[in-house]
Write a structure and sequence with these properties.
- With 101 residues, the chain is mostly helical.
- The protein contains five helices and no strands.
- The protein has helices at residues 2-20, 24-48, 53-59, 61-69, 75-100.
- Helix 2 runs antiparallel to helix 3 (53-59) and helix 4 (61-69) packs across helix 5.
- The longest helix has 26 residues, at 75-100.
- The protein is globular.
- 21% of the residues are buried.
- The model has no long low-confidence stretch (mean pLDDT 92).
């Protein structure tokens, strides 16, 4: 289940970035960068700022995916992945509406 939630979040990020640019290569590169940052970036930032390490690492996907990959399905992790997916899909809809008008 954790992998399905991760796929949904990455797909939403990819769909959002494809609305930002008309070039497919640019959209792919931005999508990979955002996905990489959401998975590894918050952990890296958390090591730089040790006073907020718990808060910053809990924003990243890696912390939530680790617990789900062990077989523990926690509602916090499910809500996190659903929120990220809905957030980026909402950004996509907003961006498409602004392009259309």
């Amino acid at each position: 289940f954790g992998l399905l939630f991760l796929i949904a979040a990455y797909s939403a990020i990819g769909i959002f970035t494809s609305t930002l640019s008309e070039n497919q290569i640019v959209a792919f590169i931005v999508s990979v960068f955002l996905s990489f940052f959401f998975y590894f970036g918050f952990e890296s930032v958390a090591t730089i700022v040790p006073s907020f390490q718990g808060l910053i690492s809990s924003i990243g996907m890696q912390d939530h995916f680790k617990s789900m990959s062990r077989g523990v399905i926690d509602t916090r992790d499910v809500v996190y992945f659903v929120s990220i997916t809905v957030l980026f899909l909402s950004f996509t809809v907003y961006n498409l509406k602004s392009i259309k008008s």
